[in-house]
Amino acid sequence: MSKSHQIGLIIKSCRESRRISQDYMADMLDIGQSTYAYLESGKTAMSIDRLLRITEILELNIHEVIDESLLSQAPKESAHDKYAAKEFSTDTKEAYNELITELRNEVEFLKRIVNRTL
User: Fold this and answer.
1) Whole-model pTM?
2) How far apart are CA 41 and CA 38, in angstroms?
3) Residues 102, 53: Cα–Cα separation, whole Å
4) How confident is the model at residue 110 (pLDDT cuts 50, 70, 90)?
5) C-beta atoms surrounding 75 within 10 Å
6) Cα dihedral sign for 6, 7, 9, 13?
């Protein structure tokens, strides 16, 4: 397996764990979605500049991505967990907490409606 393919698999795993689409990544990189898909699949080699930009968008450490690709023949399952467990920014945590609060309120509202109809 080529290094481009290994790096692409690591990036794909991280992108998917963050629920980011290929379309979004392509827009951020000012390229077509199919071009981005070729980068992730390793069919097109990535320039260092492109890899740096992708790791910035995904909030990854470029050195860890490269190290992971060099240390294994295939990305380890733990690579997904390692990047998925990355600490979120304060803004992201606040946004998630707001969403959780809204969802809890909605659940309570729906419970009250159900209890009224029973």
Assistant:
1) 0.58
2) 5
3) 34
4) confident
5) 23
6) positive
